[in-house]
Amino acid sequence: MTEAELLIIGNGMACQRLLRELLHWPGRPKRIVILAAEDRPAYNRVLLSNLLSGEQADSAAELGGIDWYRQQGFELICGDAVIQLDAANKRVLCQSGQRYRYQQLVLACGADPIRPGYALNPQGELHHNISHFRNWQDLLQLRSASQHHQQAVVVGGGFLGLEAAAGLQQLGMQVRLIQRGASVLNRQLDRPAALMLQQALANKGIEIHTRSQLSRLSYRQGQLHSIRLHDGRRFEAQWLVLALGIRPATRLAQQAGLRVNRGICVNDKLQSSRPDIYALGECIEYQGETFGLLAPIQQQARVLAAVLCGQSDRYQPATICTQLKISGIAVSSCGDIAALSTDPSRSDHSQVYQDHQLGHYRRLWWKNQILQGAVLFGDTRLSPFYSDLIRSGQPYRGDSHSALFNPADQAA
Question: Which of 58, 265, 304, 393 is the most buried (most CB within 10 A)?
């Protein structure tokens, strides 16, 4: 049995950031072992859509090869998933039969994609010609699909769904996107910005169907042939991409008797209900909140690295401003836009700037001169400024209209 001073289960972006943060601390644990279910070192999942579309080479997503781990003194075991966690005896069992004992354990298990019943066979596995878009294996599947099929349907209008649709469209496939809500990115964008994004994607050839739900799949000679929506509409489809959201991966934590709600419950030290087991990333729940974006996970890694090295740091979630590009279209979202768009009590007024010719849009929500949220489309240069204003929680000292414009707007 191998013994580690610190054992980390999972080798995604959360683990990689934690390792890099640990390098800053001379008092870090001496023997650090990482157990990874995937058969390759960590990579940047944010770039998967760029790799799918061919905008960047696969090497751009590498976060550290095998040699990097070895040079830093880390022991990385790839392609051997942990199947059992014995918290009472501080042991884990891997699929290969190898056992590890630990002094401290970090769960960085990530999250599992949601799988609707219509997509599963009797064995509980995905039917043929159906995939997600979350990992390297999904990337390889979609590349292959684009070479052998012409028509794809993406279910889900969040970040991953839009990125999958854009990537497949750029590879030459005819793509339809099915979104249950009234608009895409309905938690990040207000209705006008979402409609602008939908129109921009439609102009690029992606067909978007909102307020729609998939109800049935049809196969012909073992291959996916078409889909049917709840309203009776039928579309031909040779490949289906599921992007319906994620659930924190909690199986090992539940097995070990840790406190679990939607995710693995942790305190402000990222410590689970057992003092020797910590967790971070998509698998955790802190004060009722789960996390799927990179910025808060990076913050968690900084705190946890300090805690593991004997420091008294505390995790305090900060307002996060999300910026991304979908098929070259820049969008940004700061604050709880879903609540601001539906609950009038969250703000006392909002302001909108729109340049129809350039396709730029900004909306700010205020309450007592304190910025509560911001949505930007097309031109996102002011996003860091708005993020800092929201994070400060202080009244804006100038005329709130001045915050709506950047110097280029004022000159125009």
Answer: 304
